[in-house]
Design goal:
This protein is mainly alpha-helical. It has two domains: 339 residues, no CATH class; 99 residues, no CATH class. The longest helix is centred in the first third of the chain and has 38 residues.
Length: 460
C-alpha cells in the first residue's frame, strides 16, 4: 500500500501546528474574565446578561457575545486546569491548520507549494493564538471556506453543514459575521455565474445560515459584531493597523504583495476579487483581522503561482511522487513533535506582567479600586472580592466610564473630579503612570510597590 503524501499533508501540518500552539503558557489578560464569565454562567445556570464584576457599571445590561465560547473555555479549565486551556488552544489551531492545508491543495496544487504557503499563513495567525473565544473563529473560518469551495466544485450536499455551523459559531464568538460574509460572497458568485441549481442551493444556504445566526440568546448581534469589525477601538493594540516592522505585519505585507503580483501576472476570477478585496480592507483596519486575508489568499496563491511562472509549472510536471520513506519519516517527525508538545505543555499561566505582589493587599482591602485596564481581567479572576473599575470587556464601559478612566490615569484637567465622583479609595497602576506621581504628592499612602505595580490608598 502506497502512502499518499497529498492526503496526509493536512494531518501532518495540523500535528505540527498543534505542537507549536502548546509551546506558550496562558497569559492573555482577557482569558481571566472569559473564564470568570463561564464560571458564573455554569454556577448560576443562566446567561450573564448584566455586569457583576465592576464597581462602575454593576448591574447594567451588556453582551459581548461569546457566551458559549466562554463556557467551553471554562469547561476546558475544569477538565485540566490551565493545561486544559492550552490543549484546547492547540486543538483549535490544529483544526485551522488542517482545513487551511486542504484548501491550499485544491486544484491539484503540489504539496511542495501548498504546505509552505499554508504554514506562512499559520505563522501570521500566531498573533491570535491566545486563550480566548477568538480561537473558535480562527478554526471555523478555514473550515467554512473549505466547505464553500467544495460546494462550488460541484458537491452541493456539503452546504447542509453550513447553517448548523453558523448556529454554533454565532454563540461561540462574534467573528461569525465573517462566516456570514463568506456565505454571502459565494452565493453572489453563484448568482453571477448563472449556475441555476448551484445558485438556488447557495441562496437557500445563505438565507438559512442568516436565520440560524439570529438564534443567539446571548450573542453580540450581527450589527454590533459588524460595527466592531468595521470601526475597531484604536487604543487597543490588537485593533490598531498593521505594523510592518513586526513579524506578523511583515508576513501580512508579503501576502499582499505576493497576491497583487500574481494577480498582475496570472489574473484571477471574480470570486477571487470579491473574496480578497474586503478581507484585505479588514486586515488593513486591525491587526487581529490580518490572518483572514492570508487564509483566503492561500488557495489563490497556490493555484496561481504555477500559472504565473512557467518554469515552475514545467518543473512540477516532471516531479515524481514522494517516496514512502519520506512520507513515513515526515509523519513520524510531526507525531514526535506533538507528543513532545503534550509532554511539555505549560501547567500555569505567565503572570509576570500582573500585580501579583499587590494581590493579597487588594483582596484584604475595600472600597472602589481604580485599576490598569489590562489588569482588570486578572483581578476579576484572582481577586473576585474587589470589583474592578474597567477591564477588557470594554463595551460596558464605553464611552463614559472609559473616558473617565483615561482622564484620571493620564492626569487630565479633571482627574481629581473623577476620583471624587467615583469615590476611589485605592488605585492599582503601573509605576510610570502620571497619576501615581500626582497621588504620591497628594499624600496617598503606598500599600504595595514593586517594579510592576503600585497600590496607593487615599489618605483618611
Amino acid at each position: 500500500m502506497r502512502l499518499d503524501g497529498r492526503a496526509l499533508a493536512p494531518l501532518y501540518v495540523a500535528l505540527a501546528a498543534f505542537a507549536l500552539a502548546l509551546a506558550t503558557p496562558p497569559g492573555d489578560p482577557d482569558t481571566y474574565w472569559h473564564l470568570a464569565s463561564g464560571k458564573w454562567m455554569l454556577d448560576h445556570g443562566a446567561l450573564l446578561r448584566a455586569d457583576v464584576f465592576s464597581s462602575t457599571v454593576n448591574g447594567q445590561p451588556y453582551s459581548v457575545g461569546e457566551w458559549f465560547g466562554e463556557i467551553v473555555l471554562y469547561v476546558a479549565y475544569l477538565a485540566g486546569g490551565w493545561t486544559g486551556l492550552v490543549v484546547l488552544r492547540g486543538l483549535l489551531v490544529a483544526v485551522a491548520a488542517f482545513f487551511l492545508t486542504r484548501v491550499a491543495l485544491r486544484g491539484g496544487t503540489p504539496v511542495i507549494i501548498a504546505v509552505p504557503v499554508s504554514c506562512a499563513a499559520l505563522l501570521l495567525s500566531e498573533i491570535v493564538w491566545t486563550d480566548r473565544p477568538h480561537l473558535f473563529t480562527l478554526a471555523l473560518f478555514p473550515l467554512l471556506l473549505d466547505l464553500l469551495l467544495t460546494a462550488r466544485g460541484g458537491r452541493l450536499g456539503v452546504l447542509l453543514g453550513v447553517p448548523p455551523l453558523l448556529l454554533v459559531w454565532t454563540n461561540l464568538h462574534g467573528g461569525y459575521a465573517l462566516g456570514l460574509a463568506l456565505v454571502g460572497i459565494f452565493t453572489l458568485d453563484a448568482l453571477l455565474e448563472r449556475r441555476n441549481w448551484a445558485s438556488s442551493a447557495f441562496a437557500i444556504t445563505a438565507i438559512t445560515a442568516f436565520a440560524a445566526s439570529l438564534v443567539d440568546p446571548g450573542s453580540l448581534g450581527l450589527g454590533a459584531a459588524a460595527a466592531h469589525a468595521t470601526a475597531p477601538p484604536r487604543f487597543i493594540v490588537e485593533e490598531s493597523p498593521p505594523d510592518v516592522t513586526r513579524p506578523a505585519g511583515f508576513v501580512f505585507a508579503a501576502f499582499i504583495i505576493g497576491t497583487l503580483a500574481l494577480a498582475l501576472r496570472a489574473g484571477g476570477t471574480l470570486l477571487d476579487l470579491m473574496l480578497l478585496a474586503p478581507l484585505l480592507w479588514l486586515g488593513l483596519s486591525a491587526q487581529r483581522q490580518m490572518p483572514y486575508f492570508a487564509f483566503a489568499a492561500v488557495p489563490y496563491i497556490t493555484t496561481a503561482l504555477p500559472r504565473a511562472w512557467s518554469p515552475l509549472e514545467a518543473w512540477l510536471a516532471r516531479r515524481r511522487p514522494y517516496p514512502r520513506a519520506a512520507v513515513v519519516g515526515f509523519g513520524a517527525g510531526v507525531v514526535a513533535m506533538a507528543l513532545v508538545g503534550l509532554a511539555l505543555v505549560p501547567s500555569a499561566p505567565n503572570e509576570r506582567a500582573y500585580p501579583t505582589a499587590a494581590l493579597a493587599a487588594v483582596r484584604s482591602s475595600s472600597g472602589v479600586l481604580l485599576n490598569e485596564y489590562d489588569w482588570g481581567g486578572y483581578l476579576i479572576w484572582r481577586a473576585p472580592e474587589r470589583p474592578v473599575f474597567v477591564d477588557g470587556r470594554l463595551f460596558p464601559f464605553l464611552p463614559d466610564v472609559f473616558a473617565d478612566w483615561r482622564e484620571a490615569v493620564e492626569l487630565g484637567p479633571h482627574w481629581k473630579d473623577v476620583l471624587d465622583r467615583y469615590k476611589v479609595a485605592q488605585v492599582l497602576l503601573r509605576p510610570d503612570r502620571a497619576l501615581v506621581s500626582a497621588l504620591r504628592d497628594q499624600g496617598w499612602r503606598v500599600v504595595s510597590e514593586d517594579a510592576v505595580a503600585v497600590l496607593l490608598e487615599r489618605p483618611r
